[in-house]
UniProtKB/TrEMBL annotation:
Classification of source organism: Bacteria, Bacillati, Actinomycetota, Actinomycetes, Kitasatosporales
Domain of life: Bacteria
Record domain PurM-like C-terminal: where: 183-325
Name listed for the protein in its UniProt record: Hydrogenase expression/formation protein HypE
Pfam family, one: AIRS
Family the entry assigns: Belongs to the HypE family.
Domain PurM-like N-terminal: 60-171
InterPro entries reported for this sequence: HypE, PurM-like_C_dom, PurM-like_C_sf, PurM-like_N, PurM-like_N_sf
Source organism of this protein record: Streptomyces albipurpureus
Amino acid sequence: MSDVKAPAAPDLSGWSCPLPLRDHPRVVMGHGGGGAMSAELVEHIFVPAFGGQTLTDLGDSATLTLGGARLAFSTDSFVVRPLFFPGGSIGDLAVHGTVNDLAMSGARAAYLSCGFILEEGVETELVGRVARALGAAARAAGVEVVTGDTKVVEAGHGDGIYINTSGIGLIPPGVDIRPQRAQPGDVVIVSGEIGLHGVAIMSVREGLEFGVEVQSDCAALGGLVEAMLAVTPDLHVLRDPTRGGLAASLNEIATAAGVGVRIQERAVPVPPQVANACAILGLDPMYVANEGKLVAFVPREHADAVLAAMRAHPLGASASVIGECLTEHPGMVVARTAFGGTRVVDLPLGEQLPRIC
């Protein structure tokens, strides 16, 4: 008989979510939103069950050493509704989401796996359209799909098409990018206008019109990261603010590094169509998802040069300095408002708009 013991059942008594998850005997949509509910699900269920320090670091991708090479490895699943939207599709997202997670550790993605979960009755022509979009996005991003899987579930047990992709890439020598490296004095830079993806999905899903079509910012960020690393390999943190938006990413970094973050609300680039849509719907653009943006924590001595390199790249043309890292209020993100006041930017509880990726 083996002496290996199964992991103990999770202790729910220590869960501290504002809406305690121990009061939810079943999974709710908020558990998948990238906010506090997602974090507690991962922290109290998955990490104890799986174990291992690499998993505990909870980066966008895992950094591994194999045969002397440093690899980044990531996986993601995509359940967006609708399957096609202004500026992209579930196929584009399946590539860009994984490629971008690898890029956030400084790695250049090399290979992808791809798993399709299809609902019985979905049109084969639609499956073909999604597959062609995924293949085109992979070729444009410079990655190769090398393995995959297909499963079919009964009608009524899915929603047309779900996709899972995993990816691996090489991390260049001298690059060490992870949320724990944020330091007081770091300059916080965002690569462009925020909120476009979430508003694009919302406009199509809910049939809303805002006077102009809002296009998703869905894009592969590997080239932009390479341009930044060409300035200096000493980038401290990179994060792509997807679910939970910019607010979630900043909070996750502040918590991981034990630093405070202060941003200037006026400096955050919010395009007019996103600002108008959020004003109508009562949303905060800071919490709206993005699929082609990154936030960077850069040592102050390199910030100007990195910003210039970002603005010289098509995906960073609107890059802006939005704040800095502090010793004060560790683990907390605050924003200086246009009126000179200060507000706390909390980690979102769930997701303002589910199934956006």
